[in-house]
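ok, trying the design again with the full structure, not the truncated one.
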């Protein structure tokens, strides 16, 4: 004879009590994640509503820029991002690519281009002019099957005046996190353009979890 356990009569803690029981660091992290996700949803809905052909992230106040070789391509350091398109169905907005989380918690936290975009690109606009030394691209392989990892792309650095500083082509990439030296002094923005494959194939859309630009700003403080 099977004995069934009776449901527990212990009261469920109220949400305010659970919140207060969390360490202060965990509460701050949760609030920061909620604010970022809210910003992503807001920008995504506005882009869809207004029909923006190249949606971009909002301008946020920049914190103190790093003075050594660190990641300049983050919202925290005043970076902005613009893309050729993004996949609205999954809310995969490009701001995820500059949130500073190189190891995302799930597959939602990435930029994915629109299915009808034949030459998807993402451009990171730095808070100020910087000497960029290296680029790192966290591609689909960090959270998904390797067959979705983009293998062909170009990287172009531009000065504040819009002049091309450096251009590089990469093909046959197999790394989930691709790392490339990038000799780009006096750079204000960096654009990555991906080569896609026909519809219905794994690389028909670009998938990018994070862009990292290692370098040093030419000014002591980043501009807002």
């Amino acid at each position: 004879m099977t004995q069934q356990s009776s449901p527990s009569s212990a009261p469920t803690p109220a949400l305010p009590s659970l919140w207060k029981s969390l360490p202060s660091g965990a509460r701050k992290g949760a609030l920061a994640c909620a604010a970022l996700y809210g910003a992503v949803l807001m920008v995504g809905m506005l882009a869809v509503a207004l029909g923006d052909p190249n949606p971009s992230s909002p301008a946020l106040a920049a914190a103190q820029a790093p003075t050594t070789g660190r990641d300049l391509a983050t919202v925290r350091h005043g970076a902005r991002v613009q893309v050729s398109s993004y996949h609205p169905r999954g809310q995969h907005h490009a701001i995820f690519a500059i949130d500073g989380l190189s190891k995302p918690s799930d597959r939602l936290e990435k930029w994915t281009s629109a299915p009808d975009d034949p030459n998807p690109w993402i451009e990171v606009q730095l808070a100020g002019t910087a000497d960029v030394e290296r680029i790192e691209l966290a591609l689909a392989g960090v959270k998904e099957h390797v067959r979705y990892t983009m293998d062909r792309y170009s990287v172009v650095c531009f000065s504040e005046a819009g002049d091309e500083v450096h251009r590089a082509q990469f093909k046959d990439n197999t790394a989930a996190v691709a790392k490339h030296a990038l000799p780009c002094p006096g750079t204000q923005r960096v654009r990555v353009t991906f080569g896609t494959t026909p519809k219905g194939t794994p690389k028909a859309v670009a998938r990018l979890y994070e862009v990292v630009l290692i370098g040093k700003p030419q000014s002591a403080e980043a501009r807002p």
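Keeping the full-length input from now on. The chain has two helices and eight strands.
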